[in-house]
Amino acid sequence: MLIPEFSSLLATTTDAQCALLRRLSTLGLVYAKLPVRQLRELAPPVPAFNTEPRELALKASLLDARTLLGPFSAEMLESLATWLDQGIDKVLVDATSSEDSELERVAVAVSELPANRVVLRIPVPSLHAREVTELKEKLARLDGTASGVVFVIDSVTLTQETGFEALFTSLQALRKSVDEGFFFAVEMSAGDNSAVALTRIQEFHHKNIHVVTPGFCNGEGEQIDSVTGDGEAVVDAAQAFVQCLRTDRPDGLFTTVVADEAGVALGLVYSSAESIIAAVSSGRGVYYSRSRGGLWKKGESSGNAQKLLKIDMDCDSDALRFTVNQTGAGFCHLNTRTCWGHDGGLRALESMLFSRHAHAPAGSYTKRLFDDAELLRNKLVEEAQELAEAESVPDVAGEAADVMYFAMVRCVAAGCKLSDVEVRFKLAFVFRWLVYLTNGFRWCF
């Protein structure tokens, strides 16, 4: 699969840069290649007073996207940890060579970071049989240090004929030497022919090898240059995504599950290559209607539109999941949130409370809680105390439900959604607690 290298040079304004990053992230992980200055200066949670607004906007977009950020040197441990603590998905750490001593130095430097969020970037001058054997051994020794590698290859481009087949064979041998869940990528130039580059990316994808190279993704009505200033191709990320899919359906469509931010399935639809590209460029839920024989822009007639958050292909590359923010009555034509009926659990509570916040019946207890901050605070403290003192399973469950109700009232009163809370779990739990469990809480938070 393509891991598009994001370049701010492909967009002329701050808004355009952030929109490009958002569109690329819709399709998967994006390699945001920043200069060392920005990696250092934008790392602190509280920016310097003279930080330019465009750089603050870029940072916010990086944290909101599915970002592989780098390249960091092994000496930038403080900046690495700070970015991870704020929620960046993965960091890319440079090794200056593939020599044993250099790989050991980098491995030691990143050993205090959560391995599942660290990817190493390793230059390899060539990949002959001897080098492949040595690299297999080195990858084995890096087990537990990082969750993936990006091999940087300058000697061959994606569109080059001479030497490509030998390189492809060597990379397959290396890929097979590590676990299937290990992130394995190659960074190389796309050359001068984007059509050939797309075919090569597809070939790599079906061998579970990612390709890192400059990428773009047009928005509605936009046309981004598809070549760099040096005349090299910049790959269309949406086209690359579609190219990596496969289907055995006679109509060529892709089965698509539509889910909300919590992963709850809203319905089952179908996508075409055209509808996927339209969805990414518009940032909306766009699918293929078999009955109409064309694009179906969800909400165009019903008003129940969707904001597209991300698209993921499954492990076999033959099915899709669209994650969306559903508006209006819901996804189903029967005006239920899902095609399997109404929501339940915390999502249903959240929906009900937002509705009550806008149209609460006069005199209702929920309206009193929204209108009286002191009453709500006292109830939160009271219910939390009762939960702390509960002992039996029924009592703990009941008190926990009470706490969650009042906590959700507080969230809704502040305009905070469950998805916002889940982001905080990502920030606090994924990094801090993994560091705690792995390293005995060496970092102080």
Q: Describe it for me?
A:
There is one protein chain. Helix 6 (129-141) runs parallel beside helix 7 and helix 11 (345-359) packs across helix 14 (393-413). This protein is globular. It is α/β, with parallel strands linked by helices. 33% of the residues are buried. The strands form three sheets. It has an eight-stranded parallel beta barrel, surrounded by five helices. It has a four-stranded mixed sheet with strand order 11-10-15-14, covered by helices on one side. It has three domains: 2-244, Aldolase class I (TIM Barrel, Alpha-Beta Barrel), CATH 3.20.20.70; 254-326, Phosphoribosyl-AMP cyclohydrolase (Ubiquitin-like (UB roll), Roll); 345-414, Helix Hairpins, CATH 1.10.287.1080. The protein contains 15 helices and 15 strands. It has helices at residues 14-26, 36-41, 53-64, 77-85, 100-109, 129-141, 164-176, 194-205, 237-244, 273-282, 345-359, 365-371, 373-389, 393-413, 418-439, and strands at 2-6, 30-33, 67-72, 90-94, 118-123, 148-152, 183-187, 210-216, 235-236, 254-259, 265-271, 286-289, 294-297, 306-313, 319-326. It starts with a strand and ends in a 6-residue tail after the last helix. InterPro entries: HisE (IPR008179), PRib-ATP_PPHydrolase-like (IPR021130), PRib_AMP_CycHydrolase_dom (IPR002496), PRib_AMP_CycHydrolase_sf (IPR038019). Residues 268-340 form the Phosphoribosyl-AMP cyclohydrolase domain. It holds the Pfam family PRA-CH. This is Histidine biosynthesis trifunctional protein.
